[in-house]
Amino acid sequence: MKIEGLLLAGATLFGSLALSQQAGTPAAIDAPRAPAEASGFVQTAVVDLVSFEVSVTDAHGPVLGLTASDFRVLHDGKQVELSNFSCYGRAGESRAPAMTGEPSKPDVASAEAPVVAERPGLSLNFYVDNANLSTATRGPVLDAAIDFVRTRVGPGDRVAVTTHVGGPKIVQGLTGDRELAVSALRRLRDEPGGWSITNVERLRVTANLRITAAILRQVIVTGRPSAVAQAAAIAQGALDEVRTFEQTERVATRDATRGLRAILTAMSAMPGRKVLVYVSDGLAGTPGQAVYRAFEDYFREFPAARSQVNDARMAMTGEGSEQKVFDDVVVSAAAAGVTLFTIDARGLVAPGDAESAGGPSATWSRDVRNYQEPLQKIAAETGGSAFVNGGDFKAGLERFSRELDSYYLVGYPLPRGGRSAVHTVGVELVNRKGCRLDYRRRFVEKSLPALIEDRVLAALSFDAAENLLGIAASAGAWKKGASKTRELPVRISVPIGKLALLPEGDEMVGKATAYYVTRGPDGKQSALLKAEHRVAVPKGEYESARGKTWPITATLVVKPGSYRISVAVRDALTGTAGYATLDVPEDSPSGGNGARVR
Known about the structure:
Helix content: 25-40%
Number of strands: 28
Strand content: 25-35%
Shape: globular
């Protein structure tokens, strides 16, 4: 059979990709060993294990002498019974805090103190947000990161280095070679630039407000009849500039969090415990707050500008906080199973640094907190911690290391609902006092299609997920396209023996969904495109068709350059999926034969 060509085009996240594709007619087709007379599959519930880390600390450091009976875990506000419990820590760490009452009834069969084992390997990603980071602050924190990689990264750990300038980019993919990671961090440390446009604009607008207030003072002193009207116009012009900056900073904040969410999604396929260390000069919780407060401080003395000061106060309560975008970061981290640790690279921020915060010293503390509280929020709600107002970055990373080395792993069963949903998680200590608990506050239950979409996107940047469907991918020769584009044929071979086919008239029929996404030479990725295909074989050929593959072909229409291509196929009946990636050089003499399959 033949499927008519399907042209797909989608709005892109970071790049562009058009796709035309067609299901080929195989020479022979295979099917699962199921009775031909079967009328369908029995739908069964899949039970997943919700498993997450809980770091317990007190005034003396990590606490590792607890048992399962010391923990009370809540899923959407209801207590659940633990199905697994283990403890990891550094040698010699086994203290338990004081009890405040009688021991509670154990939640699991044994209340014996767990064996404290060395933690498993980490997948650690240093995300250096160069769009929100100055050259001056970047150096010291990256020097500390280099020292951390060399001294604290263990044999089972793997490290990636990513950045953000005009979009998220991979500097070093996930590697167990510490020197490769160090080299990537050193390149980021030494490269020029990094002072964000919003920082420059904030200082410029604040300086302009100070100058404008001085001019306004001179106008009023003249005592001319037109002075009041002239002063009001001057103040209005200053307020308009403040409003423009607010929108600039709001766009920058949303761009930064969008890039962060993209990297978090890409980390979903990483193995083991996934950790992202986010380095920046802070993120604006309420964009424009610093310059609005500066406007109030500089202009409040002028009666002629009173209405504009009131307008400024109203504007601050308009769009206001970007709480929603930071909530979205937390949900993305929960969906990918990533713990965030955040660093304010400015180090110690004191009243004397008020101008760098964007306003007069009278409001410096509120404005500094405006850039630090989002870092604290996204860290705390994903199970990590933030390092803010600290000058010793090595000490900060050492504190992160202790939290990563010493923790409890707890889990409970979750019957999947078959759809994507966000759940809340709560953990309490029973009859124990003086402890702080860090853990992910949310868990995202994802539908199978959503999981596959995440994994095919993740394969562009990091390791691909398991290929349970056993697909293979290959590329043909480049062809010239329309309007300075190139066309690249891509073929996915699907073992039909791993697809579920059901009787339908004179045929055995199944369905498969193919997914495609690319990353181009500029590091930008396309939107995810997908298409459904009908797979069918006559019943009379059912037995002879075993062991063959079903080809799905597509033509990628892209701009010139080398590309990495990530593909996936999902069996619609069983949910089984397969993944593959291709690295294709630009218009190589051998055409598609230059593609390297990963």
